[in-house]
Write a structure and sequence with these properties.
2 copies of one chain form a homodimer. By secondary structure, chain A is α/β, with parallel strands linked by helices. Chain A contains 8 helices and 14 strands. The first copy, chain A, has a 6-stranded mixed beta sheet with strand order 1-2-4-3-5-6, sandwiched between helices. Chain A has a 6-stranded mixed beta sheet with strand order 9-8-7-12-10-11. In chain A, strands 13-14 form a two-stranded antiparallel ribbon.
Chain lengths: ~325, ~325
């Protein structure tokens, strides 16, 4: 294993120390292990908290800041954050208007966020939970009952974060988050497996001439192993399941995220974006906005995911609203 | 080789087609192979053009937009752009106030930009060239007479771009670019070699337990091969040569770029940032601004580089000025 780590057991805490050093406009609680906007809590503002296993950076800590998350709770690598950690972050951002938990649909995350929500409720904090389950590759998976939560998490956090920033009430912020999730579909493909610092070797075996189609963001098995093939054919493999799962009307606008899983050069992601744009265009889908880059990663996995989210003018307005986080920034 | 490509010979053009599809506020000339701001040329504004071999994305095409480059000329992978291509981009951005060429110090780039500058001068366009040679690892290298140009290119493009956006004259824009280069120093380390699509195999051999200290962005040899070691020791290996090469006064503010070379997880870059921040702090250096992420890459190389640039209030003001490009964006 070749990684920039000291003791693998310390990697998450040491990375958080780096986040603290790099981003003075964020506050990092190294003891409770969460990242929060320096100006939290903001009185009267709905708080937005997410979290999940580490190894998917910039998700989630990289999306903390004005216009997006108020706090993020990174668990250990590929491991859910614990309830006390989530509770501490929730209390840190509670400005009296309630807190929305954005939770990717993995069994551990769901359970621990639910426990934290109950503990927070006991302390008088109103909690709404938005479950993200956009990955259409498989119905149930290694750590999932139901679909996995992947790339749409970014869209949920951005759009719900924008509405929360405007001062919308708890129910509305949760509702728009749920709506974004319902309108989104994702599908990923892996060229290589990823290696956690603790394990020190790839999480699964993938022959030199094969790809994992429908892979999860922890390397969970997808729909099939297939032979490596040209980019345009792989683009079809990731686009078609989304068009099948998500009924997109002709001319309907969408936000498209072509996301790198960690070790894929940006040049290749743009090749894929070009191919996917062609396929979407042929299907009558209108790309209203797009992102190309590493946003929801799987450590050092080579691969990519496609997320498509159907949008209307209101969702586009919220998408375009100013955001200032380490991983996503515009308008301020 | 596992990559998202079709015919490796087409990868640069196909990636540019993806850039065109993803960024409607840029114009991509697929025939002449350059990327330009959609509103170019802007009358009376100094144009800023850069370019170099592909494989370092988002550099340079990802830095085209208001507040940074007016145009970028991507060559084939790890290959200089040709003079006609540079000339076409130069003409596309010439608004009558002259054009600055930002050139990384590699023999092919220097030669081809010089030829293009002469051709442009023949057509009545005033050209100034800013040569970037910030890499303090080695004095001469595989494709270099003198030091290599690496991470400081981003800082030169951002700061000179901000001054050009304000309407400063040609000589001033070139002067601030040269000043940023003089105040910058970089040093890189590779954990793995990178693989070009055309070659299909790693560009050099690096044993499983060794790292290349002082590596170039094409995998050029550095100062030494050393045994893999903990992050804090690698941080010292990249920080010390910079502190030796660049005389930084106690308390002097700097911009720090901790840059991933392509396949290194962001989590590890933050671990490195934390270690480097500690070392800089111990040396009395004040981190005024920082960037952590993949900005000047080497395809799928695992590794990182550190760039430190001494700054004053004016350089910080230009750094903070609004920028809107695919790879760097704030304030708009």
């Amino acid at each position: 294993m070749k990684k920039f780590v000291n003791d693998p057991a310390d990697v998450v805490r040491e990375a958080l120390a780096g986040v603290a050093a790099a981003h003075p406009d964020l506050r990092v609680d190294l003891a409770e292990q969460f990242v929060v906007r320096a100006d939290a809590p903001r009185t009267g503002k709905v708080g937005l908290v997410s979290g999940g296993g580490s190894g998917h950076e910039p998700l989630h800590a990289g999306f903390v800041g004005p216009g997006m998350l108020d706090a993020a709770c990174p668990g250990e690598v590929f491991t859910s954050p614990v309830p006390d950690q989530i509770l501490a972050a929730t209390k840190a951002v509670d400005g009296g208007a309630g807190v929305v938990h954005v939770v990717k649909n993995y069994t551990g995350d769901v359970m621990n966020f639910q426990l934290a929500a109950e503990l927070a409720a006991d302390e008088g904090i109103r909690i709404e939970t938005v479950l993200v389950d956009d990955d259409v590759a498989v119905e149930d998976s290694t750590w999932t009952a139901g679909r996995r939560g992947t790339g749409a998490t970014l869209l949920v956090e951005k759009i719900a974060g924008a509405l929360a920033e405007e001062g919308a009430p708890l129910a509305d912020v949760a509702a728009v988050g749920r709506r974004v999730n319902e309108l989104s579909a994702s599908f990923a493909v892996a060229l290589t497996a990823c290696t956690t610092p603790a394990a020190g070797r790839p999480g699964f075996e993938l022959p030199d001439d094969e790809i994992e189609v429908g892979v999860g963001i922890h390397g969970e098995p997808g729909r099939s192993r297939q032979k490596l093939r040209p980019a345009k054919e792989i683009a079809a493999l990731v686009t078609e399941p989304i068009l099948t799962a998500e009924p997109i009307a002709s001319g309907e606008p969408v936000i498209v995220l072509v996301n790198g899983l960690g070790a894929t050069p940006l040049m290749e992601l743009y090749v894929m974006f070009g191919e996917i744009a062609r396929l979407l265009d042929a299907a009558g889908v209108r790309i209203a906005r797009s992102l190309v880059g590493d946003y929801v990663t799987s450590l050092d996995m080579a691969g990519m995911s496609l997320t498509v989210c159907r949008v209307d003018d209101e969702l586009l307005r919220l998408w375009d609203a100013p955001v200032r986080t380490p991983g996503l920034r515009w308008g301020m």
